[in-house]
Backbone:
């Protein structure tokens, strides 16, 4: 029992702070990536009743512009995680929409399991699955198209911008791997 | 006789080079960009990688690369006087005992002699000298008429020719033995690896061979 509580104390220190150039490039990548899809969403997609941006992309931006070496931030995880989680989320909503709390729990938990099993773990995928359930009528009306746009398509555009921006500075390279 | 059963993951190779938490932290600072891992996890990864590297490197050297191929042996019915004489003449501390068909059936070491000559506390040679100085005469009397088969350790611990060097080192550390016969699949003697052979062993295959 003592050992159990001792585990809660932690065993190691927090990683070092990154340098200023890393901070600046993270900011720039996120600004351009989110800026682009938010702009297209507002000026084109809204008018044809479609979506290009969802909340989970904010979390993806942290990874693919701010922690670009992370296994969680690699293209396989970014694209695979969003698309698979979106499918799981839509399926959960359509099966269990009578009980939204249950559909939500199933969506997120199953999304994590599927991402693990397919080696595509990407934390924002959990949000993508949850948004499919609690994102409102506009999202629900998209049906499984939600997995293609915004989830897959938006993530793909963010990926292109990550490739362009993250490889400019000498000290950075992206991705670590593709598949 | 079952070297495959030797426990793995021996502590001998669990200790990485003296790497400290601050070394890990400093290394993480050397790499630009955010590393999505804690210093503790990174150290753990390093420790395992180090262990695998040691196993890979020392695993490249096998028993056949370091063994002494020319082995003095005795038979089960060889007189102990003759066994002792052989060990004394050749300055060896142990000899394998072979059966009629030349398979290894046991091994005799100094320990086997000492423990039957009344050495207390097991096998230390000084305890034998201590007994001697109490004036009890020749301590070998009880075994004067005996043969190799009477005092040998049987079955002998043996290894195969492709046993990696690090496994043999683990075996020595675990069992406290000082030499191990090397046998083929049919249990026929091919050579012997002693602690001295290990000291002379090259760390890597392709290095300078054992001085023979």
Residues:
């Amino acid at each position: 029992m003592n050992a159990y509580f001792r585990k809660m104390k932690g065993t190691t220190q927090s990683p070092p702070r990154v340098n200023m150039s890393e901070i600046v490039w993270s900011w720039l990548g996120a600004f351009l990536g989110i800026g682009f899809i938010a702009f297209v969403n507002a000026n084109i997609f809204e008018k044809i009743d479609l979506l290009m941006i969802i909340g989970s992309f904010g979390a993806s931006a942290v990874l693919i512009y701010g922690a670009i070496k992370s296994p969680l931030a690699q293209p396989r995880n970014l694209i695979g995680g969003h698309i698979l989680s979106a499918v799981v989320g839509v399926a959960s909503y359509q099966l269990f929409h009578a009980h939204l709390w249950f559909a939500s729990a199933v969506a997120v938990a199953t999304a994590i399991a599927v991402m693990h099993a397919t080696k595509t773990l990407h934390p924002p995928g959990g949000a993508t699955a949850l948004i499919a359930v609690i994102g409102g009528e506009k999202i629900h009306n998209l049906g499984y198209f939600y997995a293609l746009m915004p989830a897959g398509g938006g993530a793909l555009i963010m990926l292109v911008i990550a490739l362009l921006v993250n490889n400019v500075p000498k000290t950075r390279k992206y991705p670590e791997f593709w598949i | 006789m079952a070297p495959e059963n030797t426990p793995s993951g021996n502590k001998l190779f669990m200790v990485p080079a003296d790497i400290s938490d601050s070394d890990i932290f400093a290394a993480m600072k050397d790499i630009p960009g955010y590393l999505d891992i804690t210093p503790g996890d990174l150290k753990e990864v390093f420790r395992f990688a180090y262990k695998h590297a040691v196993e890979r490197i020392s695993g490249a050297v096998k028993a056949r690369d370091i063994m002494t191929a020319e082995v003095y042996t005795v038979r089960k019915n060889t007189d102990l006087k003759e066994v002792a004489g052989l060990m004394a003449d050749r300055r060896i501390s142990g000899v394998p005992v072979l059966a009629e068909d030349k398979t290894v059936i046991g091994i005799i070491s100094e320990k086997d002699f000492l423990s039957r000559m009344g050495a207390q506390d097991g096998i230390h040679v000084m305890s034998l000298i201590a007994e001697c100085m109490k004036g009890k005469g020749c301590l070998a009397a009880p075994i004067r008429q005996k043969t190799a088969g009477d005092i040998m350790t049987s079955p002998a611990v043996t290894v195969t020719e492709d046993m990696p060097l690090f496994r043999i080192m683990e075996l020595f550390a675990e069992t406290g033995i000082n030499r191990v016969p090397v046998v083929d699949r049919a249990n026929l003697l091919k050579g012997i690896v002693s602690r001295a052979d290990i000291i002379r062993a090259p760390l890597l295959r392709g290095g300078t061979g054992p001085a023979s």
